[in-house]
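#structure-requests
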Amino acid sequence: MIRILTSLVAVFVVAAPLQAQSSSVRETPKLVIGITIDQLRGDYLEMFQQNFSDRGFKRLLNEGLVYENVSFNIPNLDDVSAITTIYTGTTPFYHGILANKKYITKEKREIQTFADEDYLGNYTQEKVSPLAIKASTITDELKMASLNSSDIYSLAPLSAQALITAGQLGNCGFWIDDYSGKWASTTYYRDFYWVVDAENKSNTSYSAQKLGKYWNPLLDAKQYNALPYLQGIVNFQHNLEMTNQNSYALFKKSPYANECVRDMAIKILTKADMGKRLAPDFLSLTFYAGNFPGIADYSIEIQDTYTRLDRDIEALLDAIDKSVGLKNAFIFITSTGYYDSNEEPDLVINRGSFHINRCEALLNMYLMAIYGTNSWVDKFYNNQIYLNRKLIEDQNIPLQEIQRKSAEFIAEFTGVQEVYTSYDLMHGEWNPMMEYYRNGYSKETSGDLYVELQPGYKILNDQDKSHKVKVSRNNAVVCPVIFFGSHIKPERIKRTIKATEIAPSVAHVLRIRPPNAAKDNVLSELF
């Protein structure tokens, strides 16, 4: 009875248009599907279309409102910072999420951004929660607007992705555990849906099938001819079961993880009766469209990944149409705005090498010569330099002074384009590059200096064997945003939109407040 009364209140808050309004006013969708595709590239969507069906990506591109490119305007972009920006409608400066991992200066160690010892894992050893997000998300706002009557679930390959898209008020966020392959969650959420639990215990689940799992091409390899750089194309076969314990980490970089997300999404969609109540429901999904580890950028594997993902989108759209009807659903599809290259460092134009460990040592020696024999440099991490703040405070040295001297010294290094201090980011004069780095700054977790490297330089660390050699790049990746479903008119928009415009636009469609840190206006073409 309480559930019914709550839902009746929610329908007036969220769903029902006022009687005095015109009948032409758009009805609130019964179901929202948010699909984030990690590293989705617009140029690949165009190039690989010959192998797509008519009811997957082609349907979205032909019948949806398509923005050809989205800009995130933050440095060191990855899936976690990108998805948080999409769902909060703001940058890391306000939402606080910079990357998958963060450096804790007091403990002098790297940890997961969402690590939280206060909560245990369900079907996982991970202890995490979404509490690291400092701003509300679209899903949080829907929960508040509907007085908790909207159901909100998320599914993703990785824990951070699921936590962000479920938000702090969602029913539950699920991800694929690295070690067991089962659907995992955290005790932070109190609604571990029974269908997911049943899937984990089933003999037909992906975790049960995983033993001896191989990835072979869906189509004949000769059909994957969109990239002209491939010579002597042959069929591939990748064993997804590695000898190390976390074999599912590799599984999650294959198209089978997308199938896993798709199948579980369809089960929750139907079993939970999503979109069939008075208040709108929200299902968030994250897919993967990046490279497979150890495979060159231009490969038949990436073409197979997109082809299989196209079939996943087709199956998902058909299931939504069958369950609630596409006219009653509002679907948005976004990319994470970056591309993690597998390029071979020995095959790139080598302008030189930047050694992280040498930079740390030389800067420390320089500061020792000025301020005395102490350890002034804490860590070079994620293109940032962390100074020993406690020592600086104990020695009564002005932070702005030591940051400025450090920046001037590092700026003289070969391969360094520019160095920005945290003081200047917070208090300096505005310019486009300063805004760019300020957007990616968080006073809780960012370093004292941001080091911008020149393109083409290898980034090395001679003292860390686990460090993967990377090459500095400033490439722009064309990343589409697509709106589809409820009252959406087909249109192709060539202008670049901001990632921070997505959340306010989705909120407007739902007739709820935008996330509390979102400042941008609604995309005009939606209305």
